[in-house]
Amino acid sequence: MAYSIVPLSRLIEQFESLPGIGHKTAQRLALHILHLPRESANAFANAITEAHEKIKYCSVCCNLTDREVCSVCADATRDRSIICVVEDPRDVFALERTREFNAAYHVLHGCLSPMDGVGPEHLKIRELVERMKSGEVKEVIMATNPTAEGETTAMYISRLLKPLGVSVTRLAYGIPVGGDLEYADEITLKRAIEGRSEM
Amino acid sequence: MAYSIVPLSRLIEQFESLPGIGHKTAQRLALHILHLPRESANAFANAITEAHEKIKYCSVCCNLTDREVCSVCADATRDRSIICVVEDPRDVFALERTREFNAAYHVLHGCLSPMDGVGPEHLKIRELVERMKSGEVKEVIMATNPTAEGETTAMYISRLLKPLGVSVTRLAYGIPVGGDLEYADEITLKRAIEGRSEM
Question: What's the whole-number mean pLDDT along residues A159-175?
Fold first, then answer.
């Protein structure tokens, strides 16, 4: 570009480095920041450094937390005999929104993906196996994503855990509530038929 | 939500406050920040505070700059007898990308919009009128957006400047290059016909 304003270009570049943000959006966001009151801009900057400094992995379930043990693991009313294994902290948010789930979690922080060079040693699988040692855990629900990688990860972990005498289950496949049967793909429909239940 | 991690929620809220960013995207961006190396996260935070501290309005054209006078206004090779009036600093970026335009700019920072309570006193119109006093300016090109508000703003300013003996022009309307005639709206086509030129 013929002309540029260094601090502005730098801010635009930072926004552009975020996933899903293109150059035009980055420009718009950077200009929005410039139009904020000084305190709001500082609050934004502080939120970034503070979140980055304070948030770490829960020593039990590897979810994100600002304490040693996350609020779910610290909650005595939770059923610790059931562990729900998810790929991402966002999946915990999603499951918590059901308000029906009262078990513990384990966050893998990814899924097995040989194409991207992600092997078992890159995920929190060792920590999950470690949790079985207390003998408290009766069931592990595999709630990895219904993708090829998620399936592989679920399969891999189930083979590790079954010899330890733990029951390993998988979330049900089927048609999403509120969805349209017409638009459901063949594999989902096939799984929905296989998993049908008495009314 | 049943559970939350304070520093993370705060960061998600900050992202959510940006224009066009919803809750899910804000979550994704915040988690992306957490996965950055410490230095990158700090660089992001610094880019925000630095841009906010250093960038101000150019004392001549009111565009954004980190100096007293912006690089366009400081450029001696620019033709200062022509001023191109735009609504937003992004419009200057767009015009500079043509690499054909060698005049000066004036950034209004908005357009007249009585519905949103934006009157002439909220725009950099007084500063524009002030620039006419040198007698150096021969032409003012109104390059506000081709919207109702942009038109009104152009009309308002042209009425202010014409009595000062300055020629006021407007960007040409017509079909966009590379566009499809079939999809052009009626008003654009009408303007394209009105503005036709000898081949």
Answer: 91
Interchain contact, A5 vs B70, CB within 8 Å: yes
Please give the pLDDT value at position B3. Answer: 61
Residues A16 and A88 in one domain: no
pLDDT of residue A180: 82
Name which of A20, A49, A88 is nearest B41 (Cβ-Cβ): A49
A65 found inside a domain: no
Residue B80's closest CA among B58, B63, B61, B94?
A: B61
Query: Of B63, B192, B53, B92, which is closest to residue A36 (Cα–Cα)?
Result: B53
ipTM over 0.85: no
Judged against a pLDDT cut of 70, whether residue A3 lies above it is answered with no
Put simply, the chain B residues between 166 and 185 with a CB less than 8 A from any chain A CB are none
**Min Cα separation A39/chain B (Å):** 10
Write the DSSP assignment of B91-153 as a string of letters: HHHHHHTTS---EEEEE-SS--BGGGTB-GGGTTHHHHHHHHTTS---EEEE---SSHHHHHH
The domain of B23 spans: 6-54
Interchain CB distance below 8 Å, B1 and A96? yes
pLDDT of res. A178? 83
For the domain that residue B92 is a member of, what is the CATH number?
3.40.1360.10
pTM strictly above 0.90: no
Does the beta carbon of A123 lie under 8 angstroms from any beta carbon of chain B?
A: no
Asked whether the beta carbons of residue A31 and residue B90 sit closer than 8 angstroms, the reply is: yes
Number of A–B residue contacts, CB under 8 Å: 147
Instruction: Give the mean pLDDT of B156-178.
Output: 90
The nearest alpha carbon in chain A to B63 belongs to A5
B84-100: average pLDDT: 90
